[in-house]
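Risk mitigation, structural track. In case the binding assays with glyoxylic acid fail to produce interpretable data, a predicted complex structure has been prepared as a fallback.
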Amino acid sequence: NKPRILVARRIFPEVVERLRTHFEVQSNDEDVAWGAAELAERLADKDGALTTGSQRIDAQLLAACPRLKIVANMAVGYNNFDVDAMSEAGVVGTNTPDVLTETTADFGFALVLATARRMTEAEHYLRAGRWQHWSYDMFAGAEVHGSTLGILGMGRIGQAIARRGAHGFGMRVLYHNRSRLAPEVEAECRAAYVSKEDLLAQADHLVLVLPYTAESHHAIGAAELARMKPTATLVNIARGGIVDDAALARALKERRIAAAGLDVFEGEPSVHPGLLEVPNVVLTPHIASATVATRLAMASLAADNLIAFFKEGRALTPVPGTAATT
Ligand code: GLV
Ligand code: GLV
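Fallback model:
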C-alpha cells in the first residue's frame, strides 16, 4: 500500500505527477484556501502532507490526524508549524532552505532600490498622466550606493543581501542577529556586528530577514521606528508580524521615516488600510522567492523530502526541533 499524501495547494503539475509515482495523492487542484477544520478533515487519513506557509500545523490539527508522519513545507519559513506540538506527536516537519536564498536576496535588494528610488510611486504618477515637465526634485529619493545597509537577521538570505550591498553597491553593511557570525563569514560579507539600537540609528536602508517567532513579534514597532533616521527606508521580506504595520503606517504618514518596501504583512493577504493610503511605500504580494526556477526547486525539494522520508526513513531538510526520523 502506497502512503497517502495531501498536497494542500495547487503546485506544479509535474511535481504532483512525480509524487503520484510514489504515493496515493490527493491534491488541491482547485487551489481553495482550506480552513483549519477542512484541512484536518482532508488530512485525517493521510500519512504525509505538502503544505505552503499558510496551513497551520498545531496540536489540534495533529490530534485529528493520527496517521500523519511528515509535513513538507514549500517555504523556508515555518512559523505555520507548532514545532513543539509536532515533536510531541512524532511528526517530522521540513522546509526549503538554500534553494531560494539568492532569488530571495535579489528581491530584497530590488525592494531596497525601488523604495529608495521611489519607483512605484513614480510609475503611478506617470500612468495617471500627471507627468507634464521636468522638475529638479521630481521623485528625488535616497542614495543606495555608498550608503549604510542595515540587516536585521543574518541567516543565509541576510548574508546574500549583505554581499550584494557590500560587493555590488559599495555599501557599508551593519547587521544585528541573535548570535554573531564567525569572523570569516563577517569578512566575506563585509558586514559589521552592531547592537539593535545602533543598527536602527545608523542604517540608511534597513532590511528585515529574521524568522517570525514569539521573540520577533513586532521587533519593529513605534519605538524602533522612532530610533531610525527620518531619511531612512525599511524593507520587510521576512514575515508579517515582525513589523507593527499600524505603527509603520503612522510613521510613513508622518514622514518619521522616508519610505518602506513590504513583501509581507500582518494578516496577509489583508493589508493594513493605512499602508494603502500612503504614497511612500512599495507593496508586493509575498513574492520574494517567486521565480519560475526557484518555485520549481522549492516544490521539488518538498517532494524529495516526502520521497526520502518514506523510502529511506529520513527527511532531507528537517526543521530543527520536529521529530527527526520515522
Ligand atoms: C516564504 O516566505 C518562505 O518562507 O519561503
Ligand atoms: C532563513 O530564514 C534564511 O535566511 O535562510
